[in-house]
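Thread: "does anyone have the structure for this chain?"

Original post by V.I.:
We have the sequence but no experimental structure in hand. Need at least a predicted one for the grant figures.
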Amino acid sequence: MKTSVLAYPLLASMALVPVPAWGQQQDSDKVDQIVFADMRLPAIVVTGLPEALAEDVYNATEITFDPAQTVENSLRDVPGLQQFRRSDARSANPTSQGVTLRGLGGNASSRALLILDGVPQADPFGGWVAWPGYDALALGSARITRGGGSVTDGQGAISGTIELFSDTVGDRIELGAAYGSRNSVDADLLFGRKLGQGQLTISANYARGDGFIPIIEGQRGSVDRPAEYEQAGLAVRFVAPLSDTVELQTNVRAFTDDRERGFAFSENHNDGADASIRLVDRYSDWQWSALAYVQIRNFDVSFGGVADDRNSVNRVFEQFSVPSTGLGARFEVRPPVGDSVELRLGGDWRRTEGTTKENFFFADNDTPRRSRRAGGSTSTYGGFVEASVQASDALVLTGGGRLDFWSIDGGFRKEIELISPFPGAVRTDENFASRSDTEFTGRGGFAYDMNDQLTFRGAAYLGWRLPTLNELFRPFRVGSDATAANELLEPERVKGAELGLDWQNGPVTLGLTAFYNQLDNAVANVTLANGPGVFPGVGFVAADGTYSQRQNLDAIKSRGVEIDALFDLGKLVDGLTVRAAYAYVDAEVDGSGDAAAVDGFRPAQVPRHNASGSIRWENDAGTGASLSARYVGQQYEDDVNILSLADAFTLDGRLALAVNDRLLVETRVENLLDARVEAAVSNNGIIERAFPRTFWVGLRAKIE
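Reply from O.Q.:
Generated one for you, tokens below.
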């Protein structure tokens, strides 16, 4: 495994820290509203403009992050929010970690729009999410808005929007370190310092582990070994006032991520760096914000072909370099139009470009026979308007729309021979025609307070997503299975509606939402044939493999119900809270032509049932205990619903003891019952599992 470039300076910086800390400090003049998903009733920190009046209309869940848990796994507590695979970033292939909501899955690219302080976070080339890159950040909270068609945030919000907000840390030093099963280490550092009227925040993280063997016991061979991982990140944020009303926000972060998949030739490496600058005026009559950002990414990954008896493995494919870049800017203004009316005007621009560089068809001596380069660029830019009105003390109405222009340019794919008898011979040299068009996004709804306890709300929306460079131009292989790209893919388009009830009575809060979504032109990997054979776009596929191509399905239709409940039992036992949530999703594919074989089937990797719950007690000093449960229903590995992944129930627990106001001792356990969470199954029945039972013991310290 490669050594993480940030690991040594990060550990050195931790060694110089005297006694750092837990807990979150909030800046009272930036508090917007109370949230409760982490069971501690903290306040959400606003980093951009104040929360819009329109947010009252849509089904949103707000959480705060526990420093002892990764961002990725904290978000898994929101039912209906899922990644393409059940594995987390310690063992999953990074390219499978797209995020979605409401059963609109079946694709490793994200169909939910992930935003950090206003900046889109999906990988510029593939649309997946580099989750280890966020554990370095001083994140305070997140807001998950289920349902697509976000008018103000741009394309990509097919199933919803996930907004991450940086925390306001003040003068503080905090250090956490934990040791876990299989020689696992987690460490994080947070440094906050007020510089004049400004705030400097530096945060860092490091994680490593010997890993577990992903293949279940009883199916393993001599090639199977633990899937080790090593990940690190560093982030710097500076916020300062430029005038009485205008604030400057700058962010720089970098991360590195090394993993392997549990056998030779399965290593992968992912790294990146981001920078952004934003100006925000929250206090003038004319509120406005302006943002510019850059994303730089690169990853490399290798794939090995394992024999049926799992006693031998050969390299079959490697992406030795996939550089990509994302550039963008956004502007919004809220003119003063009256005490009961809010108007939002703005526009944004985003450009992505990237190239995959690959070797494949390896000889027995691990020498590649052929090389491929493929890639291109995409651009989107558009404008939006959204108006909301407090029509009466009880009624809020909102509606908006945006128009986007998009283009796909410079697409190409070139393959050459690398070895005799024709080294350098060009096998494929394709340049794809540029394309462009326009798309409309619209969203509207209402919220009506029926009494002091009950609110009735409804919304309808249109949204769209442009296919990624990965989907358009890059073929890929997983084991013996091969999937061809499709440069003619059309944008995905969603239309949906929802109705909901929110009820609050003292310590009890309940939310119920029913929804219907139809995702037209859904991009999916459509199985077209079984090996052996030579197929266009991928070449030879072995007898135990399948040949697929990315295609636009007619539609994915998804309907369901979401339930959220919170019980604040502080009057019975100080600091005691209980949370429960459930999502039911009935999703099916509408397919014709080459996709007729999947018509009526459930999309790959989409469960019908998803539930979570927790009970938590914590006192003011930090001493406490919690128990969290998750249930995910049965789902299918493949689009033809043959390979099934069993349902799974997991329990996590935590005990913490505050030694004093500066030192906290804690123990944690993941997957307490060691449930077999099936993450993948191959055509020959080989099952891969997600993380097994893992114990942790750690310290968290602080200086303020």
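V.I.: this helps a lot. Residues 7-703 form a domain with the Maltoporin; Chain A fold (CATH 2.40.170.20).
O.Q.: and The first strand starts at residue 31 and ends at 34.
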